[in-house]
Write a structure and sequence with these properties.
Strand order of the largest sheet: 1-2-3-4-5-6
Shape: elongated
Radius of gyration: 24 Å
Number of strands: 6
Mean pLDDT: 90
Oligomer: single chain
Helix content: 55-70%
Low-confidence stretches: none
Structural class: alpha/beta
Number of domains: 2
Distance between the termini: 67 Å
Order of helices and strands: HHHHHHHEEEHEHEHHEH
Strand content: 5-15%
């Protein structure tokens, strides 16, 4: 490893950089890499913070402004999720160097971190080692961000269930398996896997929806009410309703899958579609889309419907 590091400022620096990247990737990432125990530490803190945020949310019984509260709630979840990401992105060499046990368990990572913190390398070697280090770290963090984004959709939907008093394992179930199609995010009421006949509601959830929405029907089965809950338009989401393509909207509409979305985003999309129709921009396509968006319901309306199931 040291020979490769020394070569970062030589004529063969490109080959040395690539070889060092391959070598260090497995030392930092993977089940035995140094990033794993650090993620585990931060994961405990993250889950505890989310749990406290959920408790605070449930203290307020007001259902009428639920959409805005969901927006604030998902913003807080995003902030919590970004804390470990930011710490490792900007402070990882210091963090590794501060944990002396890593000098024994992860000597190569400890050595690299120490090099980055000191001025023992030439400018070229230091810059290239920095690039290798942060390439590895950013790749690992991206995987965690994608996982957390997927879970965020489930978290904000589940808080609606908790808010109205639904109980997991009785009133609903997560990740229901059917004989056909993919697993369903939520079904109501609780049923055993493969018992689709007694399902009254199938529900799929995404925090940010675009072309991935085409996967939604696979988790929703006919014979029961079908909801597609999207966080599009929330401050914490990276997408808007207009990011869902017309062909996907047509498929959702034809399969009687009801859209559930953030109230201001629904109104915003209706206004934009009306303007497009008025200006003769793909009038047929946008009229079909508007017809579907007109049938969308808000998070508040979804909560009211679900609450009526236990009253």
């Amino acid at each position: 490893m040291k020979e490769l590091i020394n070569g970062l400022d030589g004529e063969d620096w490109l080959n040395c950089s690539n070889e060092l990247l391959k070598f260090l990737k497995w030392k930092f990432q993977g089940e035995k890499g140094v990033i794993r125990p650090l993620k585990d530490i931060y994961e405990k803190e993250r889950l505890e913070s989310i749990k406290n945020t959920e408790k605070n949310f449930l203290h307020n019984p007001n259902i009428e402004n639920l959409d805005e509260r969901i927006n604030a709630f998902t913003n807080e979840i995003l902030r919590i999720n970004m804390i470990p990401d930011s710490k490792m992105r900007f402070e990882l060499p210091n963090i590794i160097n501060s944990k002396r046990e890593f000098e024994v368990k992860h000597p190569e990572c400890f050595y690299i971190s120490k090099l980055l913190l000191n001025n023992d390398l030439s400018e070229n070697a230091r810059l290239r080692l920095n690039a290798i280090f942060f390439s590895i770290v950013c790749e690992s963090l991206k995987q965690a961000r994608n996982t957390n984004a997927g879970k965020a959709g489930e978290i904000f939907t589940k808080i609606i269930f908790d808010f109205v008093g639904l109980k997991e394992g009785t009133d609903y179930k997560k990740q229901h398996k059917s004989k056909k199609g993919s697993d369903t995010d939520f079904v109501f009421p609780y049923v055993e896997d493969y018992d689709d006949l007694n399902v009254e509601i199938f529900m799929e959830v995404q925090l940010s929806s675009n072309d991935r929405s085409r996967l939604v029907p696979s988790g929703l089965k006919t014979g029961a009410k079908m909801y597609f809950v999207t966080g599009n338009g929330l401050d914490a989401s990276t997408k808007k309703l207009n990011d869902i393509g017309a062909q996907i909207v047509e498929d959702l509409k034809n399969k009687n899958i009801q859209l559930v979305c953030y109230a201001p985003e629904i109104e915003k999309e209706k206004k934009e579609l009306r303007n497009k129709i008025l200006n003769k921009v793909n009038p047929k396509e946008n009229t079909e889309k508007l017809d579907y968006i007109n049938s969308a319901i808000t998070f508040t309306e979804l909560a009211k419907r679900l609450k009526s199931r236990i009253n």
